[in-house]
Amino acid sequence: MENKKTRELMDKLEEYSIEKDKEGKIKVDKNNLKNICKTAIENEFDRLSSLTAVDYKDYMEVVYHLGSYEHKEVLVVKVKVDKEDPKVPTVSDIWSYANWYEREVWEMFGIDFKDNSDLRKLLLPEEIDGNPLRKEYPIGGRE
Amino acid sequence: MEEEGVRMGIIVGKVEKLFKEISNWGRKNSLWAAIQPIGCCGMEMLATSTPHYDADRWGVLYFESVRRCDLIIVGGYITKKYLPRLKYVYDQMTDPTYVLAMGECAISGGPFYDSYAMVTDVDEHIPIDVHIPGCPPRPEALLDGIRELQEKIQEEGDLEGKLPEEKVEWRYEYSGEQED
To answer: Where in the sequence is the domain holding B90, given as residue range(s)?
Structure first.
């Protein structure tokens, strides 16, 4: 597939010092995230189809998939976060349904979404401590 | 006292023992089962009640209202979030309550042993009478477990650990602060 519209959007996003990788995904700085989301919405990439995170042992990445019904293409945005002090600006004021995604990432990875006032546990019961999807979490929750 | 047994059509023995045997016979042949079909064990559990396998031949009838049931078939993966609900269900059932653990997950965690969400020691939280291994056990295995439980009910004679005052030890204290 050509991904023509995605490439066009990437050219427009050049001003935010994005970094493209081979697979057509862009790595951005967390301070530019909101502006990039707003630019994507203006270019009809207006649907947040997934928000998740990956633990790479030394650092973590929050991954946003911005889909477009108009062009049938997907833009993948990755934000690198520090493992000791993981903080990312929230996008729940742009897409209100991002709140549940952020709650899940918060409980599973311990990533703090700044300005999201509704960070409660979504899937896990209260008695589970720690962040189960982090690499250092003990197997089966047992020490 | 003469020897116990049936002689010339007359039953000889202690009255209490006779009553006990009759009540146990009644209990074992009329098990009302509360089921919670989780995962692949659930499919086998439901198949057991269908005409092909027909658990009703052994007197096991699946019923919706747990307060009228005296057998609970614990099958499938028991998660940490589900365990308080399971204990709450167990607590509401009639005494004596019999428990069947069906499948590897309910016995020891099965293939999900490594998961952060699994309870691998259900028998620490609910007293289990018969364990049925298998992943999932076939309906025949479940029927075999039911038959074993019936033998146990008939032979045990007494109801150790099954009476309300002994059940207190397993009682789940419902705080009313659950979310749902």
So the answer is: 25-166
**Contact residues, chain B, for A125 at CB < 8 Å:** 80-81
- Comparing alpha-carbon positions, the chain A residue that sits nearest to B177 is A126
Q: Which structure tokens are listed for A61?
A: 């990445």
* Cα gap B157→B49, rounded to integer Å: 28
Helix (H, G, I), strand (E, B), or coil: what is residue A78? strand
- The answer to whether position B133 is within a domain reads yes
Structural domain total, chain B: 1
Q: How far apart are CA A26 and CA A19, in angstroms?
A: 5
Asked if the Cβ–Cβ distance from B113 to A125 is below 8 Å, we say no
Tell whether B57 lies on the interface with A, counting CB pairs under 8 A. Answer: no
Q: Are A51 and A98 in contact (CB under 8 A)?
A: yes
Mark which residues 76-95 of B lie under 8 Å from A by CB.
Answer: 80-81
CATH H-level superfamily of A4-141: NADH:ubiquinone oxidoreductase Nqo5 subunit (3.30.460.80)
Nearest CA in chain B to A134: B116
Residues of chain A with pLDDT under 50: none
On whether ipTM exceeds 0.95, the answer is no
pLDDT in tens, A25-41: 888 888 889 999 999 99
Question: Running DSSP on this structure, what letter comes out for residue A21?
Answer: -
Q: What is the pLDDT of residues B57-111, one digit of tens each?
A: 999 999 989 889 989 999 999 999 999 889 888 888 888 889 999 999 999 988 9
Cβ atoms within 10 Å, residue B49: 18
